[in-house]
């Protein structure tokens, strides 16, 4: 090994130590050494109930020590009694509890010896207690007089302390003790003076020895207390007692300490122990005991008085407690005193103990031994357990020091120093081992070490050497000298490599060298990658009751995989794996899940990753957000008539600062129990001046608000009542309501409770007729309305309402104008005239009624009309009235939806809030001819390859004299493409069928028929059909058209076709290819067009599209029999309206005519289609 290292010659000498082996590691057992006591017993009690008693003495040394004992200073042979059991290579022995063992009581000492010296134990006392017993004796009764002092002696037997003494009767009931009757520290029962009720024959003293598990009882004692012997001449027993007491009264006399001890005594107490000073006095009346310290003050923190002031107890006595204490016993007859001179002493204790060690040949030795105590201890030196004879000892010896120079191997010995005074003895030993050996390296050779990058590596080289050895570490795989700053060598030979790097891996050698020889070992070091972890998310903020998932991401060296462990902690405490708290917190390897987060979950969560070489911790502070705690400690200050300052302490904000405080109030007079918001205080202020209303009994509470939400309200403050005051405001919303023409009801909004300001709230109502009366009429009311009767109809009044209470009136009120009760108008409009716009629309004009005839607020005018006869056939009709309402003060209106070519009558009336006035005289007018409605049906009667026969019905309503029909047709195909439209005019109005020829074979056509008057043509009825293929369809049709099965088939086809057409109609109304605009463009309605021209020319509107649609519906789409239902869409409010420029603004009411007929034409296309 030495040659190998020499060949490397790459030696890094880190530190050179001359190590003192006296301070090095303890001597290996392989090296010759002195005995050393390693274990021993101390004072021991041989209890009678124990089976055996063990006295221990163990020692180590080389050669193996032998053991000897002394008892009470004399040699003790362990083989002298068969009840003693010994053990090989041990000084311990066991005494079996067989028979009488009292002869084993004594003080033992153990000696462990080998060829180099002898070690000695401290003294071991074995106490063999006897069973305590009271002596059997006959105790004479005590016969004393009332008022005498008595002592009942206990004299308990000796035994192992502690000793507890009790005075009881034969029924084991404690004898009551007080200032008059008490027990001394020795156990005697003292009576300062006796009374007759002290007489009894069963005073028993019990002595308890807990460690011996024994209680013994003394024989019962009898005490007889008799009255005063010379008081028999008194006739009253109480008088005798009183007289006896008077004669027996005396000043106190000390029983403890007895008078024989003089006026003072000395007391010695051990430092650290308990000082007990006792004074017991007799006398009549019963004396009272008090204590003082003459040489200072009683220590308040540790002095107590016990036994009714008769014992002064001071625990943990120190030198400061030394001095003179005085007890005083006093009663009305006088006093007596006693002084205690207290001396504090202590057993020996070490100041400096001798220290042994390993010494090399030729060195010097100095052993010091110093102890203090009171009295001063004496010091005795021993060598190998025997007193040192200074005459033969080659060194120097004194009471406190032993010294030797030029130590030799034969100077190895055990030196003992013993310090003693009357309170005890202490022993200290020092092993002086003089050795001359080559170094011993105790660490195994070729040890393998490992650490992680950045950590320190510790390579051990534990050694023992005498003389002292040089230690150095070398690394022989590099020629470079390493920086000494990263390397540190400890006294025990361990090399620390700080902040390791990967390149520190390799082999190292430790060399130990002294003058006797040298030794070396090798050590191998591996450097691993450090473990890294991170917690996500970092320092999350979570709302209370929400959930959070923490994840611990880690990296570690692959060589450390088997030892890698992850754990979680909260605030330093380990969290168990799997779950805690009913699975609310779940720990699963690298994740930590907390559901329903509580405030207690807030804290620092640590992920701890550990391997066999390192341990790292990542932390994440979980912050739980919650609404604030309620504010506390609400205080009111700065009390004013209409304000008060409210202050409070903010509750915990739970990590979200308070940004607003809401102050609420509750008042007990008007709305008790109802909390209302008073004001909001922005920010985190905790005080506010509150503006209050008079005559309120307030209490307040505060709600804190943060970003999370509102806190619970605080506890209410104390109540604060504001004084009353006159009203600050008057009622608002003054108005007049009336249901009868000759009355006026004045109403207003009553003041809120917070606005009353005081008791006795009333309202002073003032009124006068405007322009007529100058003086005000007044009335005080408590309600918030006042009714005046017999007023003129609808005249203006000036009104004001003022709040009044017991403390005064409110401010001067504002004047409001109102009108007395309305009546219906008493005049009808005049000058009614009608202008014909077209066959279905007229314009009505009238002159409005005078304002004084309205007798109220004019709401508008109503126009009524009814049909009287048809101009076509001259038939009279049952009058069915229709109505339109025109709101406001106006003199015209449009009446739509009239039947063409008819005679009508029309009236106009005015109305107000009370109702309708009289109607005007009827005006007769006639509507001109209009266009007919569509024919009732259109049928295809016969098809041929190039011709078709059409048949149609009369229109439901001709709306004038028919002039003929227009027949139109065009080709269509499946893709809805249409061909050009062909027209045929049928001039004979009686013709209801027509045959078309010149058609294309196998072609689908659409046919249109519409009726015409001098005014124009109406809407067409349509039908579609397919011409036959050449030479086939006609013959077949003629043959089967009369067959029953064919008729049934056609009915089924017709039903299916109707269903399909209905679907097409719905789809087309939602935006199909046949638009209304195309229909109008293809087949314009001349009368409808004339209506549009007239209306738009006179009544313009900014948005023409709705109006155009409305007019189209009036003329074409709305049937006359459905006018009432259709026109309701144009009314104002519940009826409908036109714009103010003259378009329709009224409501139209009426009922359907009986017998209305629906169109029988096809619904697939109301108008011809074009591309």
Structural class: mainly beta
Overall spatial form: elongated
Mean pLDDT: 84
Number of strands: 86
Number of helical regions: 9
Q: Any low-confidence stretches, pLDDT <50, length ≥5?
A: 1-24, 230-236, 1031-1042, 1070-1171
Largest sheet: 6 strands, mixed
CA gyration radius, whole angstroms: 65 Å
Strand content: 35-45%
Which key phrases capture this entry?
single chain, 1171 residues, mainly beta, 6-stranded mixed β-sheet, 5-stranded mixed β-sheet, 86 strands, 8% helix, elongated, disordered N terminus, FN3_sf, repeat, cell membrane, transmembrane helix, neurogenesis
List the helices and strands and how they pair.
Elements: H1 2-8, E1 33-40, E2 44-45, E3 52-55, E4 57-62, E5 66-71, E6 74-76, E7 84-86, E8 93-96, E9 106-114, E10 117-120, E11 124-127, E12 142-145, E13 150-152, E14 164-168, E15 181-183, E16 189-191, E17 200-209, E18 214-217, E19 221-226, H2 237-248, E20 250-256, E21 264-270, E22 275-278, E23 280-284, E24 288-293, E25 303-306, E26 311-314, E27 323-331, E28 334-352, E29 357-360, E30 365-368, E31 370-374, E32 378-383, E33 386-387, E34 396-397, E35 401-404, E36 413-421, E37 424-435, E38 437-441, E39 447-452, E40 457-459, E41 463-466, E42 470-474, E43 487-489, E44 495-497, E45 506-513, E46 518-528, E47 532-536, E48 541-543, E49 548-555, E50 565-570, E51 573-574, E52 578-580, E53 585-588, E54 591-594, E55 603-610, E56 615-625, E57 632-637, E58 643-649, E59 660-667, E60 676-682, E61 687-691, E62 697-705, E63 720-721, E64 732-737, E65 743-749, E66 762-769, E67 777-781, E68 785-789, E69 796-805, E70 808-809, E71 816-819, E72 830-836, E73 842-847, H3 851-854, E74 858-870, E75 882-887, E76 892-895, E77 902-912, ...
Parallel strand pairs: 2-11, 12-19, 21-28, 29-37, 39-46, 48-56
Antiparallel strand pairs: 1-4, 3-8, 5-6, 5-9, 7-8, 9-10, 9-11, 13-16, 14-17, 15-16, 17-18, 17-19, 20-23, 22-26, 24-27, 25-26, 27-28, 28-31, 30-35, 32-33, 32-36, 34-35, 36-37, 38-41, 40-44, 42-45, 43-44, 45-46, 47-49, 49-54, 50-51, 50-55, 52-53, 53-54, 55-56, 57-58, 58-61, 59-60, 59-62, 62-63, ...
Helix pairs in contact: 7-8
């Amino acid at each position: 090994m030495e040659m190998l290292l020499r060949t490397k010659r790459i030696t890094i000498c880190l530190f050179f130590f001359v190590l003192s082996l006296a301070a090095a590691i303890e001597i290996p057992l392989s090296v010759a050494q002195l005995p050393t006591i390693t274990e021993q017993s101390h004072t021991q009690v041989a209890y009678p109930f124990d089976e055996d008693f063990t006295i221990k003495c163990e020692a180590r040394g080389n050669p193996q020590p032998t053991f000897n004992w002394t008892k009470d200073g004399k040699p003790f042979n362990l083989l002298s009694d068969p009840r003693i059991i010994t053990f090989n290579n041990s000084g311990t022995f066991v005494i079996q509890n067989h028979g009488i063992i009292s002869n084993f009581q004594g003080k033992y000492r153990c000696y462990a010896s080998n060829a180099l010296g002898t070690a000695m134990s401290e003294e071991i006392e074995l106490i063999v207690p006897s069973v305590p017993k009271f002596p059997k004796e006959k105790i004479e009764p005590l016969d004393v007089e009332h008022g005498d002092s008595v002592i009942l002696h206990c004299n308990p037997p000796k035994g192992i302390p502690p000793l507890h003494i009790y005075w009881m009767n034969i029924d084991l009931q404690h004898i009551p003790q007080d200032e008059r009757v008490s027990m001394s520290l020795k156990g005697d029962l003292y009576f300062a003076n006796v009374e007759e009720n002290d007489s009894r024959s069963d005073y028993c003293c019990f002595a308890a020895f807990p460690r011996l598990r024994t209680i013994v009882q003394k024989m019962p004692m009898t005490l007889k207390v008799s009255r005063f012997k010379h008081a028999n001449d008194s006739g009253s027993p109480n008088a005798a007692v009183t007289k006896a007491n008077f004669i027996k009264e005396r000043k106190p006399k000390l029983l403890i300490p007895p008078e024989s001890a003089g006026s003072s005594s000395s007391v010695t107490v051990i430092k650290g122990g308990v000082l007990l000073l006792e004074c017991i006095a007799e006398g009549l009346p019963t004396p009272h005991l008090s204590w003082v310290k003459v040489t200072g003050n009683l220590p308040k923190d540790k002095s107590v008085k016990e036994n009714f002031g008769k014992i002064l107890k001071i625990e943990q006595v120190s030198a400061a407690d030394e001095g003179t204490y005085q007890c005083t016993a006093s009663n009305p007859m006088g006093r007596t005193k006693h002084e205690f001179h207290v001396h504090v002493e202590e057993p020996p204790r070490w100041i400096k103990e001798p220290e042994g060690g390993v010494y090399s040949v030729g060195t010097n030795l100095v052993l010091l031994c110093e102890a203090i105590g009171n009295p001063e201890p004496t010091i005795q030196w021993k060598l190998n357990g025997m007193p040192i004879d200074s005459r033969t000892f080659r060194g120097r010896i004194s009471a406190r020091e032993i010294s030797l120079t030029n130590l030799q191997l034969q100077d190895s010995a055990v030196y003992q120093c013993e310090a003693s005074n009357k309170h005890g003895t202490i022993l200290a030993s020092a092993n002086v081992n003089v050795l001359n050996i080559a170094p011993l390296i105790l660490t195994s050779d070729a040890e393998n070490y490992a650490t992680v990058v950045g950590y320190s590596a510790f390579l051990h080289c534990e050694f023992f050497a005498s003389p002292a050895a040089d230690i150095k570490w070398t690394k022989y795989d590099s020629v470079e000298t390493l920086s000494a700053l990263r390397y540190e060598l400890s006294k025990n030979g361990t090399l620390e490599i700080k902040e390791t790097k990967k390149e520190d891996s390799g082999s190292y050698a430790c060399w130990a060298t002294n003058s006797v020889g040298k030794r070396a070992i090798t050590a191998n070091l591996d450097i691993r990658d450090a473990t890294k972890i991170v917690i996500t998310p970092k320092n999350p903020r979570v709302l209370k009751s929400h959930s959070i998932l923490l994840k611990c991401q880690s990296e570690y060296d692959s060589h450390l995989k088997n030892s890698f462990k992850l754990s979680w902690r909260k605030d330093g405490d380990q969290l168990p794996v799997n779950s805690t708290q009913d699975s609310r917190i779940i720990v699963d390897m690298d994740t930590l899940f907390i559901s329903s987060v509580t405030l207690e979950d807030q804290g620092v969560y640590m992920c701890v990753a550990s391997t066999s070489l390192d341990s790292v911790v990542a932390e994440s502070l979980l912050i739980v957000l919650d609404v604030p705690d309620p504010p506390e400690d609400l205080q009111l200050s700065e009390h004013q008539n209409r304000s008060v300052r409210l202050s409070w302490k903010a509750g915990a904000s739970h990590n979200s600062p308070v940004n607003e405080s809401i102050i609420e109030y509750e008042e007990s007079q008007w709305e008790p129990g109802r909390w209302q918001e008073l004001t909001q205080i922005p920010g985190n202020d905790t005080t506010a001046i509150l503006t209050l209303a008079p005559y309120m009994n307030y209490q307040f509470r505060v709600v804190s608000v943060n970003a999370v939400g509102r806190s619970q309200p605080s506890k209410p403050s104390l109540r604060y009542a504001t004084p009353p005051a006159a009203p600050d405001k008057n009622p608002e919303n003054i108005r007049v309501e009336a249901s009868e023409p000759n009355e006026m009801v004045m109403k207003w909004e009553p003041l809120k409770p917070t606005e009353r300001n005081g008791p006795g709230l009333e309202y002073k109502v003032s009124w006068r007729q405007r322009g007529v009366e100058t003086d005000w009429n007044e009335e005080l009311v408590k309600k918030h309305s006042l009714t005046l009767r017999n007023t003129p109809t609808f005249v203006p009044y000036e009104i004001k309402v003022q709040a009044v209470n017991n403390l005064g009136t409110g401010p001067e009120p504002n004047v409001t104008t109102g009108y007395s009760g309305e009546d219906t108008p008493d005049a009808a409009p005049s000058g009614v005239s009608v202008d014909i716009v077209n066959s279905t629309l007229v314009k009505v004009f009238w002159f409005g009624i005078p304002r004084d005839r309205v007798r109220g607020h004019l709401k508008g005018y109503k126009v009524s009309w009814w049909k009287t006869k048809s101009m076509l056939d001259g038939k009279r009709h049952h009058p069915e009235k229709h109505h339109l309402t025109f709101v406001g003060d106006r003199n015209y209106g449009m009446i739509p939806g009239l039947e063409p070519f008819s005679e009508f009558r029309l009236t106009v009336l005015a109305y107000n809030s009370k109702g309708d006035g009289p109607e005007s005289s009827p005006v007769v007018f006639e509507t001109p001819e209009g266009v007919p409605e569509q024919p009732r049906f259109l049928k295809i009667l016969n098809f041929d390859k190039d011709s078709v026969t059409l048949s149609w019905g009369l229109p439901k309503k001709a709306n004038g004299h028919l002039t003929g029909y227009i027949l139109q047709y065009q080709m269509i195909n499946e893709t809805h493409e249409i061909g050009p439209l062909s027209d045929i005019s049928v001039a004979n109005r009686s013709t209801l069928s027509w045959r078309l020829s010149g058609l294309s074979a196998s072609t689908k056509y659409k046919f249109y028929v519409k009726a015409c008057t001098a005014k124009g043509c109406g809407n067409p009825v349509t039908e579609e059909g397919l011409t036959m293929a050449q030479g086939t369809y006609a013959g077949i049709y003629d043959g089967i058209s009369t067959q029953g099965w064919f008729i049934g088939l056609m009915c089924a086809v017709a039903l299916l076709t109707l269903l399909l057409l209905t679907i097409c109609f719905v789809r087309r109304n939602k935006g199909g290819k046949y638009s209304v605009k195309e229909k109008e463009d293809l087949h314009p309605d001349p009368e409808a067009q004339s209506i549009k021209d007239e209306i738009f020319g006179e009544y313009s509107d900014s948005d023409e599209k709705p109006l155009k649609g409305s007019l189209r519906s009036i003329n074409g789409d709305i049937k006359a029999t459905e006018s009432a239902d259709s026109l309701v869409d144009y009314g104002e409010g519940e009826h409908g309206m036109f714009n103010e420029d003259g378009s329709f603004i009224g409501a139209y009411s009426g009922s359907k005519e009986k017998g209305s007929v629906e169109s029988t034409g096809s619904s697939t296309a109301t108008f011809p289609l074009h591309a």
